[in-house]
Amino acid sequence: MLDQALTRDDLEVFFCIRKKTGSADRRALAKVLRALGIRLRGGTARWSLILRALDLSETQDPRHWADLTAPLLTANDVATLIGAKDPSIIYRWEKGKLPADTPPFPPSIDLSNGRKHARAKRWRKAEVLAWHQGRPLPRYAKAAPAFGALTPTK
Fold first, then answer.
1. Domain ranges (residues) in the chain
2. What domain of life does the native source organism fall in (predicted)?
């Protein structure tokens, strides 16, 4: 699974980057890959590289592979999935403006590296469904910090 080569088309589907029909414009994908620090080799990338860019470990519970490799969702997709009338409510929920006694909304994945108005927030379908159904969110293994990245405490 980790060695599967992902083409530019595969990456556009995974990151949910929509382009105009018939267009060969790849600038949106290039911006996302640059923001995440992903460099394509021979026009492809491997899942291990994508997981590391998203701060996840390459060694995941096999039950989570389908969730982790499923295409990410935009706010519009999330709103449609859970029956919200307006996608802007998803951004409000993400900021913590939820109805009382509601658990926190699943964290978004920022594909913009902090660029303002980039419209590059995505969510995992499994997390959104778990939140919507009142189940605990899936827990994925995080990547270990680089050697020397931790500061010892006194």
1. 5-69, 75-132
2. Bacteria
